[in-house]
Amino acid sequence: MRYQEVKLEDVKRIRWEDNPMFLALEGNRVVGSLQIVRGKYFGIARQNHVGELAFSVSREFRGKGLIYALFSYALENVKLRILTAWVDERNIRSQKLLEKLNFTKLGKIDEFMFSLREGIYVNLIFYVGNADEVLRRAKEELKRKANIGSY
Predict the structure, then answer these.
(1) If you count DSSP H runs as helices and E runs as strands, how many of each does the chain have, helices first?
(2) Helix or strand or coil: residue 135?
(3) Nearest one of 52, 51, 53, 64 to 24, comparing CA atoms
């Protein structure tokens, strides 16, 4: 496992301000999350219409539509125009998800992030999307998952 498990106790210690996190819980266990970091671009001239995303779903909940529910709920509750996301080049599932939600791949930076767990530098791919279009696609996918009985 490359990524650290998210625990509810850890989430409760975070100061949220303009960085909301949406959680899917099974009891006290976090099984999915989507965090939005708003307006971080361009220093003091913050761009609050832009949100950078970080998301995860526990292995046993993948493929069931949970990520579409998180995207839908988050984007209905946080008004944004532009979404961005950085994805580890090895994370094909996340790349396919973002592309299914109509994100556009803009580029790759080699050795952009240091992985503490692995002790190596990893390549990241940068994606951008229109928030209204992503919300529309997430709702379509959520509805499709519900219609085939897997959600």
Answers:
(1) 4, 6
(2) helix
(3) 64
State the Cα–Cα distance between residues 30 and 23, nearest whole angstrom.
7
Prediction pTM value? 0.83
What's the mean pLDDT in 92-110? 98
Laid out side by side, the sheet with 120-130 consists of 21-26, 29-38, 50-57, 82-88, 120-130, 104-115
1 pLDDT band, cuts 50/70/90, is: very low
DSSP state, residue 4: P
Distance CA 144, CA 150 (A): 9
Alpha-carbon distance of 26 to 66, in angstroms, equals 12
In total, the chain counts a number of residues equal to: 151
For 42-91, the pLDDT digits (tens) are 666 678 899 999 999 999 999 999 999 999 999 999 999 999 999 999 99
- With a CB cutoff of 8 Å and minimum separation 6, the contacts of 84 are 50, 51, 52, 53, 126, 127, 128, 129
Residues 67 and 23 sit within 8 Å (Cβ to Cβ):
no
Surface-to-core class of residue 40, CB atoms within 10 Å of its CB (0-12 exposed, 13-18 middle, 19+ buried): middle
